[in-house]
Amino acid sequence: MQRIRLLAPLLFAMALPASAQDIDAREIVKQAELAAYYAGDDGRSAARMLIKDAQGRTQTRQFIILRKDREDGGAQDMMVFFSRPSDVRNTVFRVVKQVERDDDRWLYLPGLDLVKRISAGDKRTSFVGSHFFYEDVSGRRTDEDSFTLLSDEGERYVLEGKPTDPASVEFNRYVVEIDKQTKLPMLINFYQNGDQPYRRVEALKIENIQGHPTVTHSRVSDLQSGGSTEMQFRFVSYDLGLPDDIFSERSLRNPPTDWLTLRD
Amino acid sequence: MRLLLILSLVSSLSFAQQSDSDDWGDDSWDTDWAEQETGLQFTGFIEGGLGGRLQSSALHSRQTLSGARVRIESQYSWQDVRLTAKGDVGFDGVQQKWQTGWRELSAQTSLGQHLDLKLGRQVLTWGTGDYVFLNDLFPKDWLAFFAGQDDEYLKAPADAVRLTAFHDWANLDIAWMPEFTPDNYINGEVFSFFSPWAGITIAPGFHAETPNDDEWALRLYKTLNGTEWALYGYQGYEKSPKSLTVAGLPYFAPLTAWGGSVRLPVGDGLFNFEFSRHRSTDDNDGHNPRISNSKDLVLIGYEWELVTRLTAGVQLYLEHTNNHGALLAASPFPQWESNHNRSVLTNRLTWRDSAELWTLSLFSFYSLSDKDFYLRPSASYRLNDQWRFSAGANLFGGDTQYDFFAQFKDNNNVWLRIRYAY
For the Uncharacterized protein TP-0789 domain, which residue ranges apply (chain A) (predicted)? Predict the structure, then answer.
């Protein structure tokens, strides 16, 4: 099934060489989206972040992510269970990623037993105090940008993305390098004005897990302030058969312990 | 001296934490990965706070917040049961007494696929309001709220059996509190209030006798395509002793309530609507001025992001007193009774910096019917994973001495808190 999905856009591009440029670029980006955010039907991983500010002061976060796709490239359920630091311990973040409308987001605050719903808001704001944006974690919708293929020489495609609604984001354009083999985005430089990027997202380590190339170490750098956040994943596994009903309000108060027990 | 004792206790705890092999501080980033937790782990915080009145009061000392506390939390899983303990040990310098207690001491488990049980002391919350509670009749700590304690302390714990049943059609929450747990209500010990029976602002420090009876709270709820629906029920007593016995002693009048709510995304924001009918069964026809009348409560709210990282929330709250005519006719002080329809507009503005270290917040209550207000500005700075500094104020105002918020205007205060999380 996966193979057919990957082949289809290529065939389509060959059949329509005239408008190939944009279609090519978009299909590459869609494949990258599938590789980066939709590997397997579901997935689980432990994650930790090291947040460094410009003065070198550090903070940490540690959490477990459960994810299940409702359809490849489409709606998706995600839950993030925080274990560290102690002031966010047992806090749970729940997202239902939507395609046609804004994502549904909830935050469970255990001290208050409060299920706080979060309004749509700007997705390009800090994810739990890190340099990662919400959008870096859940994925930016590919139809929000137009793409141009700058280069397909060597091992990577190089594409430029421009927002269709520039007022909705803080960047003017970005240049993304996608590995031809794994289809994973390896480097993204965001530009505001001029030729100097102000924000960078890098994949630092790729591992093959159950046949899925997976980014297990990445970094976001704020090139203006000098701060950066590294994120590492461990205990990654796919196609666990996560039941639908664990992605619910029930799991906020009563986390699905069986599915949060990690093994390599 | 007592503070020193607490500080030394915590420093020894945090020292123990540092020697924990599970630590993944900066040094271990490249090598160690925090392994899965095994055995008992203790987390928590130590917090010191200071707060004082903006103007001197004939009824109280200047201090409204003074003291320190240690929170110790731990969790343990045994078979399929999750045991949670959260305890506070602290000294309250304003009331000059130790304050120790369990915030939570509970056992939680799933009984089969469709049933969850949580037993023991726990904090319970539901409903859609922000600082406004219609169907959430679980205990609140208004003293902590007025003194500038962390929001967590607004919700007081209760000893309860909470059973939740999950079904495709809807989920059902049943909370049974074998002993009625009242709010930590404003009784004059730290904050004065207006008594219509005395005709002045008083600070008696009274304690009403708590009914020796149980409480029930129910919620039937379901989320459908991003829209959250809920129906609620409650049987118990009013949470503060607003009524008087024949002998003139404050007591908790029986209360039954039912209501509903809906919350859904509308436009770029979140819309919520909630209503609740509170039935005062000791005074069904409203003729008894000593006992609270029945009330109908309605809340409409909308929250949205104004600009990046600045969120606004507005709520309109309406309180309709039933049999108001009968109340006025029987009341010895009709001029001080609440309006037939009391309306309150609330507004919350929250701003965070890009690194989420600073949080600035302003919450305001303004009564359109009484023209009185309550402002809660606050600022908090998270220095790192351990230290957090917060400061804020509680400002009440209004023309009269007796309206809901205006009665507290002698209690305007500012506060400061420092918290170290371990």
Answer: 75-253
